[in-house]
Structure formats: structure tokens, C-alpha cells
Amino acid sequence: MAEIKPIRAWRYNPTLAKSIDKLTSPLFDVVSEKQRKVLYQNPNNSIHISVPLGDHPSEEAAKKLSIWKQDGVIVQDKLPGIYVYYQYFKLAGSAKEFCRKGFIAHVRAYDWSENEIMRHENTMPKAVNDRVELLDKLQMHASPTHGLYTDETYTLEKYMDEAITHPIYETEDYQGVRDVLAVIHDAKAIRQFIGLIASKKIILADGHHRYEGSLSYRKQQIAANPNHTGNEGYNFHLMYFTNTEADDLRILPTHRLINGISEFNEEEVLERFSEDFIIKPVESADTINEIIMGKKWAFGLLFKDNAVKVRLKPESFSKMKWAFPEVVKQLDLTVLHYFIIEKIFGIPGKEQTTSDKVVFDRSFTDCLTKVIKSEAQMAIITQEISIEEVKAVCSSGFTMPQKSTYFYPKVICGFLFSSIKEDEFQTPAYTGF
């Protein structure tokens, strides 16, 4: 089962940390160009090592990190700890405040075949290679990925709830989320975390490219190290762990925008839909996400001057030719990618991850705006996926269509960094870890 270790985190020095909100940044795969331009203006912002600039960005990041260490911009904690990370947030249309509770630790970088950490999405090679190069140059994890464990007894929450009453940092991030960080140094409590996770399998919720980057880097280092023991820093990965049984684990939908289809004609497109879908006009386009809610294999289609709800005809489902297990084939998004993206728009499944004709957008408002402004030919509005579906797909050994899940909120970068350099990774013998 999954092995975790406490970490001796690198964090901003106490003086800089008084303005921690000016040092944090969004993750590399969600930060916008506009956000980057603002964040890069601060020479100490975490974005300089998580999404570096320059012709040779990884080398530039490594230089920046070296200067930060030398000048004391960041300093390493003396004791290893489990870092408790709570995120307080609200969702649109609701007054309820949620709190996603979790903790950050090192986890052994298991190969997918070991089935200790399970993925639910595929990755794109270029993005993985970029992460490998950055990890190689930095010898540092700039941000944690997000892993899920299942514990119906909520054993760890009491330790986390106690720790979070004495926060290290507290800030509001770019999502409007209140992020709070605390640390547990008590050895007895840390062993509770290690022991519980040792009996669990982990579902990788977010950060597939970064995790696979760690796997690739580990394989490179094993091949190059004749004295490999399995305990070196390169064997471990930085992860944020949350409990699937908590009520505050939210997965938001990611919609699809279609553009660049030659001779695109709305009437002809809808005619093609009629073979396998029931089509119903929608008067108000801005309500279509509510209209499809809770209806299996139902999607909203947004055109420039029109909106419709479509739902797969039950008898059409058997036409699906993709060789997936039933649990994957039954997913709304599998139906979408087969019957709409491949069958109607002619983009084969194997080409969909790299096609420039399909763009992903989490914001319903953005989708509606882009279609109205003719920045996209149409939008396909989807529904959120459940954690039960994620678990079922992971257990099948298969993956979901790309961009199936958007776990919300995203963790932020800048609260802490973790080193895999041997002299910085290994914990002092007297700590017992």
C-alpha cells in the first residue's frame, strides 16, 4: 500500500511570509497569461520556479532557486512535518461555506503497474517532458499534486482540526478561496498519518503530468545509479491528500468548445445529431446547464443564436465501438467523445487529445460568451462527474476521456516546496523518520 513520509519543507523566510499572498500563484496548468504577467513582476513569487520564463526556462528556474536559497528568500524547516492544508470556499448560487481538509506529505512514486496510486486521466507527452526537465534542474517539487484516500472513520481529521487552529499562513487566493496552512511535528501523530495511508490505495485526482514526470525522472535516476536503494529523494513525490468520504470534495464539469470545423452549418450539425440524439430547443441559453442537470447522457449545445438540449437515445448506446469496459462506456463524457466528437465531427478518439478543434473550458459563462462572439462555432455543455464514478473507473484499470474532472478548488503554489536533493531530503536520524 502507499508509503508516505513527512517533509522538511522549504518556505519563505518569516519577513517575506508576512505578505504570503504576494508570493503564491496558481498551478502551471491553470494560470492564465494575464495572471502570469502580473506575478512575474514580483522577483520572489513562486511562479518563477513553477512556470519559469526564458528561452531555457528550467535552467532559469534553477538559477532563481539557487539565489533564493543563498539569499535566504526561502529557508528549510529544521524538523520534518505533516503540513495540514484547509481550503474554505463557496460555490456559485450557494451561501454554504465548504472546507476541504487535507494534508501534504511525500509519497513514494509508484509505477502505474503497481496499482498503489491509480490514475483516471491520460497525459500528454510534451507536458510530462517539461515537468521532468524542471524537476531535474530544480531537484525540488514546486507544488503538490492532489491524491484521494478513503477513510470512513475520519481518523486523521482530529489531528488536522487541532493543528489548523494554529496556522502558519492564511490567505485568499485567485479563486476567492481562503487557504490555511499548519504543520504537525508531533512524532506520534505523524505515525498515525503514515500508518493509515499505509493501508490505502491512492487515486490521483489532479496533477497527472507532474506525477508522471516524477515517475519518469525516478526511472532515469535508477538507471544512472548503480547503488540505488529505493530511499533516495528521487523516489518520492509531493502530494496533497484528501478523504473521498468528506462532504466537501467538489468536482466541477469541464465543457467542450468546437472551432475550426470546415463549412460548419448549424442545421446540418443538428441533422447529424438527430440520428442518435433526442433534440429539444431551449428558450434561454443561460439556463441550459440547469436543464441537463441529473439527466444521463444529456448535453447542452450552444450556438451563436440558438441553444438546444440533446440526449442520447437509449437504443443508440449499443452502437458504441470503443473497446472500453462498461463502467467507462457508460460515462457521459465517453458518450460525448464517441457520438459527438468522433461520429459527428469526424475527429477519431486517438486524435482528440491533440486536436486544435476541441478546446476545454470550465466556465459556462465563458463558453456562452465565446459562442456569441463567434470565437467558437459551438459549445457542448457537460455535467459534473461523481467521485463514485472516478473510483469505479480507477478500479477498472482504464482511464476517462481527457479533462473529465476539475477538482475544485485547485491547490496553490508557494506555501511550501519540497527538495529531493539527498542532503535536503533525508530527515535527521533523531527524528525517527
Structure description:
With 433 residues, the chain is an alpha+beta fold. The protein folds into 2 domains: 4-250 and 408-431, Conserved hypothetical protein from pyrococcus furiosus pfu- 392566-001, ParB domain; 254-383, Conserved hypothetical protein from pyrococcus furiosus pfu- 392566-001, domain 2 (2-Layer Sandwich), CATH 3.30.1760. It has helices at 14-17, 33-39, 47-50, 57-71, 125-138, 157-163, 187-197, 208-224, 266-273, 288-291, 326-329, 332-342, 364-372, 387-396, 422-425; strands spanning 4-5, 10-12, 74-76, 82-89, 98-108, 117-118, 140-141, 145-149, 169-172, 178-184, 202-206, 236-243, 250-252, 255-258, 277-281, 298-302, 307-312, 358-361, 378-381, 406-408, 418-419. Strands 1, 4, 5, 6, 8, 9, 10, 11 and 12 form a 9-stranded mixed sheet that branches. A hairpin with a 5-residue loop joins strand 9 (169-172) and strand 10. The longest helix has 17 residues, at 208-224. It starts with a strand and ends in an 8-residue tail after the last helix.
Features:
single chain, 433 residues, alpha+beta, Conserved hypothetical protein from pyrococcus furiosus pfu- 392566-001, ParB domain, Conserved hypothetical protein from pyrococcus furiosus pfu- 392566-001, domain 2, 2 domains, six-stranded antiparallel sheet, 15 helices, globular
